[in-house]
Specification:
globular, 2,3-Dihydroxybiphenyl 1,2-Dioxygenase, domain 1, alpha+beta, 35% strand
């Protein structure tokens, strides 16, 4: 069902410092920041030859990333994102297997303009999983 790894998301307390680290220290191509108010985050993508790193920074009141940073002040890996061909079919299969889709269970449009779902970390070895339709 899952395809390739789309990205690894890292929550960061200082987005500008994180961008400098990836761009200047590691020499990576880094996108411009993009606000996603419906998700409560500002994102930056670090482009790698085989995948991406998504840098997440809190945006607005009640950002889920702020809650993560309150528990992990220096930041850290927040989630992994896998590609799926059909997010509705993936969601139905996961539900039939007892996996929990977070939120209202309906896909939302993610940072790449494509439907995404998040899966409960307790169902996936302690890892928050995002599925993105490609």
């Amino acid at each position: 069902m899952i395809g390739r790894l789309n990205h690894v998301a890292i929550a960061v307390p200082d987005l500008e410092a994180a961008v400098r680290t990836y761009r200047d220290t590691l020499g990576a191509h880094v996108s411009q920041p993009h606000d996603l108010p419906e998700h409560g985050v500002t994102v930056v993508f670090v482009e790698l030859p085989n995948t991406k790193i998504e840098l997440l920074h809190p945006l607005g009141e009640g950002s889920p990333i702020q809650g993560f940073l309150d528990k992990n002040a220096s930041g850290g890996i927040h989630h992994v994102c896998y590609e799926v061909a059909d997010i509705a079919a993936a969601s139905a299969r996961l539900a039939s297997e007892g996996a929990r889709v977070l939120g209202d269970g309906q896909p939302k449009i993610g940072a790449h303009g494509k439907p995404v779902l998040f899966l409960h970390p307790k169902d996936f070895t302690g890892t928050l999983v995002e599925l993105e339709e490609v």
